[in-house]
Amino acid sequence: MKTKKLVYLSLITTIGTALNILESFIPLPISGVPGAKLGLANIVNLVALVVFGLKYGLIVGILRSILATLGTGAVTGLFYSLSGAIVSTIVMWIVYNFFSKKFSLIGVSIFGALAHNIAQLSVASVMIHNVLIFTYLPLMMLMSLFTGYFIGLSSNYISNHLKNILGNNNYETKEM
Amino acid sequence: MTRWDRILIILVIFFAIIGIILVKSISFNEGQLYVVVEVDGKEYKKIALDPNGETQTFHIHTPYGNSKVEVDQQGAKFIESDCKDQLCIKMGKITKPNQTTICLPNRISIKLISKKEPEIDGISY
């Protein structure tokens, strides 16, 4: 199972990196919110978190950020994406673990998107010494509703199937 | 989609709209505008724009010529000038920060500046 886990985690991380790079080619037709993006790679974060737990979710998130930075070549973006990935994974884990009876994966994902935005804006305000950047927060909150909803929906399907696959494999290995 | 998801979405929309309104109101209050008159590159006069104030006019005398400037609630404009081309009058009123109107023959330039911190040009993620 350890090897299987390793393989699945590597696959998930790779898919996340690919999504991250692919996503940079998709222009968002929304003016007025510079830097807004779909955050497709967060699907991978959420799936890893739900299927494998907090530790592996964090590992996937951090590895994915570093790999995607190498892929897209935006080195200053590393701090933004790292902080966003770490904080959003932790927040999503808290919501998923303690409030999963109340919130579905869509709610979890929206919480994650909000945390992601706040963490990135905090890092940005420290880096450029300007607190005024927080005036973007309301617009980004609205954006994160849509992206969070979409990502929660997708993660729901993926994690259900992945849990099934892993569950079956577990069963087989136990029998053998 | 559970009931709590819906509540969360509504709450987020609610806070976002409140935030947008707050940000709008802050940026309007902070935008105190100043009219800066420069002659030959040196500051000649600086007036704070008062939205409730009165319209005032004043003459500017320079070694190159004389002009008359009107400053009202929204902005400033040249109303009279003894220069040849009268382009400064045709430029009309300036009302937004960082706009300028210039009388080149008399070497007078009028700028609107705001005391607010300069906004961020762009962010790259």
Mean pLDDT score of chain A, rounded?
83
Measured as a percent range, the helix fraction of chain B is 25-40%
* DSSP E strands of chain B, number: 7
Q: Which range does the strand content of chain B fall in?
A: 35-45%
Low-confidence stretches of chain A: 171-176
Q: Secondary-structure element order of chain A, as H and E?
A: HHHHHH
Uncertain parts of chain B: none
What is the CATH first-level class name of the largest domain in chain B?
Mainly Beta
- Characterize the main sheet of chain A: none
Strand content of chain A: under 5%
Q: Gist?
A:
Chain A has 176 residues and is mainly alpha-helical. Chain A is built from 6 helices and no strands. Chain A is 77% helix and 0% strand.
Secondary-structure blueprint:
The complex is a heterodimer of chains A (176) and B (125).
Chain A: H1 2-23, H2 42-52, H3 54-72, H4 77-98, H5 105-127, H6 137-175
Chain B: H1 3-30, E1 33-39, E2 42-48, E3 56-62, E4 65-71, E5 76-81, H2 87-90, E6 100-103, E7 108-114
Antiparallel strand pairs in B: 1-2, 1-7, 3-4, 4-5, 6-7
